[in-house]
Specification:
Layout lengths: L9 E6 L13 H15 L4 E6 L7 H6 L4 H25 L4 E5 L8 E2 L2 H9 L3 E5 L9 H11 L4 E6 L18 E5 H6 L7 H9 L4 E5 L5 H6 L6 E4 L4 E2 L1
Parallel strand pairs: 1-2, 1-6, 2-5, 3-4, 3-5, 6-8, 7-9
Antiparallel strand pairs: 7-10, 8-9
Helix pairs in contact: 1-3, 5-7
């Protein structure tokens, strides 16, 4: 265990399914290895780490439902996609020597533990990484909402949402050169301005329970570590006043 001063000692890291792939691959071993390295870096500081991963690189339930598929059935298919991603990341983490457990909200004992809150917390206390798969186990809820729910259940200090940009902007920085980055965003502003921090249900859950969200980039090495040691990195979503960088 490390002795560095830590701002957060238990985190929930939220990754999109798309974050696991590159160069046309839905799941890239190279990307998985890089993510595993980031996680290992903060584990060595003494941080307890849980993860929630989306399934959009394999199947996106909302999109399928707009094309005529029954929404509930499409969402269950999306939940199964997150289990595939969780198993892939578990493999990558364990290759680096990190003990990892996948807990699924849909029972599938041959490949994952069922989600049991007390067991998950015990794993974290023992220094294991826990990957929460299959969302909440219910249709109509996103993996953003699953991340907020699991973070509160395990008493995480923060949700860290990894994106391709280094925080929250007032408009898409990929399309607008004059986009301004926020240092901090108030929960209500995140909702009212449609800043796409997380979906509305997830932000509301975090606001009701005063759980901060940090939106940051994992494209640069060491991003997770920078957040947990308290560097001014990414965008903090909290009860505080909305400010630009």
């Amino acid at each position: 265990m490390g002795d560095a001063p830590l701002k957060y000692r238990r985190i929930l890291l939220k990754l999109s399914g798309e974050a696991l792939g590159n160069e046309g691959k839905s799941i890239s071993p190279t990307v998985l290895g890089r993510i595993a390295g980031e996680v290992k870096g903060v584990l060595e500081l003494g941080v307890e780490v849980a993860l929630v991963i989306g399934g959009g690189n394999i199947f996106r339930g909302v999109q399928a439902s707009t094309e005529g598929m029954d929404r509930a059935n499409a969402d269950y298919m999306g939940m199964l996609a997150t289990v595939i991603n969780a198993l892939a990341l578990q493999e990558a983490l364990e290759k680096t020597g990190i003990h990892t457990r996948v807990q699924s909200a849909i029972k599938m004992e041959q490949v994952a533990e069922p989600y049991i809150r007390r067991r998950a917390v015990r794993h974290l206390e023992k220094g294991r990484v826990v990957i929460f798969a299959a969302g909440t186990g219910n249709p109509y809820f996103t993996t953003d909402t699953a991340a907020a729910l699991r973070a509160m259940e395990i008493n995480a200090g923060v949700i860290m949402k990894a994106t391709k940009v280094d925080g929250v902007y007032d408009k898409d920085p990929m399309k607008h050169k004059d986009a301004r980055a926020y240092r901090q965003v108030n929960y209500l502003d995140g909702l009212n301005k449609g800043l796409k921090v997380m979906d509305a249900t997830a932000i509301s859950l975090c606001m009701d329970n005063d759980l901060p969200i940090v939106v940051f980039s994992m494209e640069a090495s060491g991003g997770v570590k920078r957040v947990v040691v308290g560097e001014d990195y990414g965008t903090l979503v909290s009860r505080g006043e909305t400010t630009f960088r």
